[in-house]
Amino acid sequence: MSSAASFSVWDYVVFTLMLVISAGIGVYYAFSGRGQSSSADFLVGGRSMTAVPVALSLSASFMSAITVLGTPVEVYQYGAVFILICFAYVLMVAVSSEIFLPIFYRLGITSTYEYLEMRYSKVIRLFGTVLFIIQTVLYTGLVIYAPALALNQVTGVDLWGAVMSTGVVCTLYCTLGGLKAVVWTDVFQVGIMFAGLLAVIIQSVLLQGGISTIISDSAQGGRLNIWDFDPNPLRRHTFWSITVGGTFLWTSVYGINQAQVQRYISCKSMFHAKMALYINLVCLWAISICSVFCGLCLYSFYKNCDPWTARKVSALDQLMPYLVLDILSEYPGVPGLFVAAAYSGTLSTVSSSVNALAAVTIADLIRPYLSLSEKQLSWASKGMSLFYGAVCIGMAGVASLMGGMLQAAISIVGVVGGPLLGLFSLGILFPCANAKGGLAGLISGLALSLWVCIGAQIYPPRPENSRPLALVTHSCNFSGSANWTFSNQNLLAGTQQDPFLLRPFLADNWYSLSYLYFGPLGTVTVITVGLVVSILSGGRQTKVQSGLTISKEDLTFYKAYNILKAKVSIFLNARIYTNIHSHHFYPFQLLALKGFRWCRKV
């Protein structure tokens, strides 16, 4: 197998064109006559967006280069069990649309953390805002740096040139065009992401002789390990860790995270907001299936000669760019399309983060303390977008200290997002919760999540918990060295010979907890501690302002039930009226109608 080719002129043209179009959308919304005259126009699009573009933007925002580059490598290394995340998406959308969306949309807030002050206190609002800012800046730094490093090592694209160009372009259109520019740029970029993934899939299928060959190779290599129902929470990926842990993780993203909530509250009606979430579900399924199948294609190509073990790439995150140049280099511009797909994911996530950071800073840290006009707030919003764009570019350097892209990203979201999800859930679901309980629960949940996450970084889990699959090199052409089969367990664990000697008891029984459970751990801790402290501190006497907790009127099923009852009632009334006037009236029909009306009152 020859080494992969390098980037051509046409590849750079395609990549540059993607950046120019993205920047052009921001310029259009800045100068099209629909300028942002107020902070609400800039930050939430004047609450006039429709379902489809918002849905595509929701999908693009967190389906970043982490998905394009990291998920296929996850499948290549650990198997296709990660496809079970599609079940978690269903549960996440149901919970987000039925519990969190109605509350935030009804309140008409700009920042989700405004709810925390309404429900608890100003201190908890500030605490939540600061946690969100820290989480988002760290996550965004990883999203900028990791794909740039992977693509630099394989394609030769300049590392800091790529970091700066993506950072500057997304900061530009965020600052100029506000949320409308971010949403419509996301629509364009999600199309590029699909095109890049499909290009890899189609060419792989053609070269390998069909989908059946790829599936067969994956099955023989143990990559179709989907149905693993082991309940052990220390196992890295099982049905339970991915569905349960994934539901908590993605609900913390789509239910309460400012970057996502800001999108669906920009919709012109509650119906459009809920439709956006459900359309987004289909997009998430499609992207996940494509990225997982790319991982199977990756294994099918390199099942007998792993480029990482053979030292043809220096990190696993570089495998997808390596495959692209290996199979698509003879088509000018197509490798550039895949790189554009990876960077479209980066741009969509960074722009969402920058816009959300500007929104919470204006709504939570500036507006409550400074008397500014709407025009001044609009300019302040643009200034904050510019500031946070620069901060995220600078934070990209910190990302080099983190491990694999997918796990590092999910760990960051889970450690902070889990406790915040618990805090919002406590307030929305339990009327007895008070400020003391909320603060005690948040501190406890955050401390516990940080403890296990930091411990996991110091003491990586045993291979029997992470279970990396074998990678072989017996078909590689080595010069002056023998070929071998390599299970890569030691390297993946980040350790050397005898790595598990002298490990403390907690290392194998607490720090080895699957990273997908970091979020649920924080959420459950916040709710449990918060309820206990609230009840002990007189929470049962708490009078909660109307609209801050969930009610049955917010639920779609309850509304559908009422509509159905009304239609049945109209139908029965019409039938009885017709029968009376046609002299075919039967007493049992009147009895049925009275019974139905009695049930409605009950």
TrEMBL record:
Task: Choose one Gene Ontology CC annotation of this protein and give it.
Answer: plasma membrane
Q: In which domain of life is the source organism classified?
A: Eukaryota
InterPro entries reported in the protein's UniProt record: Na/Glc_symporter_sf, Na/solute_symporter, Sodium:Solute_Symporter_SSF
The record ties this protein, via PROSITE patterns, to: NA_SOLUT_SYMP_3
Q: Chief localization class?
A: membrane
Family classification: Belongs to the sodium:solute symporter (SSF) (TC 2.A.21) family.
Q: Name one GO biological process term.
A: propanoate transmembrane transport
Does the keyword section mention Ion transport?
A: yes
Location relative to the cell = Cell membrane
Q: Which residues cross the membrane?
A: 12-31, 51-70, 76-105, 126-147, 159-179, 191-215, 237-256, 277-302, 337-363, 384-402, 408-430, 437-459, 515-536
**Gene Ontology molecular functions:** organic acid:sodium symporter activity
Regarding the membrane, this protein is recorded as: Multi-pass membrane protein
Record bears the keyword rRNA processing? no
Which protein, by its recorded name, is this?
A: Solute carrier family 5 member 8
Keywords (alphabetical) are: Cell membrane, Ion transport, Membrane, Sodium, Sodium transport, Transmembrane, Transmembrane helix, Transport
